[in-house]
Amino acid sequence: MKKVFKKYKLLDAEGKTYISDTPGLLGGNKKLKIYGRLDCSSANKWIQKGYYVQNRVFFADEKVAIEAGYRPCAVCMPDEYEEWKASQMKLTLNKK
Ligand SMILES: [Zn+2]
Predict the structure, then answer these.
(1) I need a surface site. Which of 1, 30, 40, 49 has the fewest CB within 10 A?
(2) What is the pLDDT of residue 79?
(3) How far is the CA of 90 from the centre of ligand 1 (A)?
(4) Which pTM does this prediction carry?
(5) 1.10.12, 3.40.50, 1.25.40, 3.40.10: which CATH number matches 8-95?
(6) Is pLDDT at 95 greater than 90 in this prediction?
């Protein structure tokens, strides 16, 4: 069987697009700066409606998404979202 080398557009930690041989593990919304699972029910609902698609980005993993300034999706990654929320609160307190 012939192997198909598909190329994937991913976003790096600086928010720049690059071409990868492997698909991203996480999807994201460029406009809202949110990342989440590829099968996120909330994201897919918007994609089906035709919104979101032009803002759809992909990340190799969670670390890259965070470094690019994205936050976890509250719908499909509730644990990560809670952690993010707690860390944001800490940041605010530290600024004082
Ligand atoms: Zn989600």
Answers:
(1) 1
(2) 97
(3) 24
(4) 0.82
(5) 3.40.10
(6) no
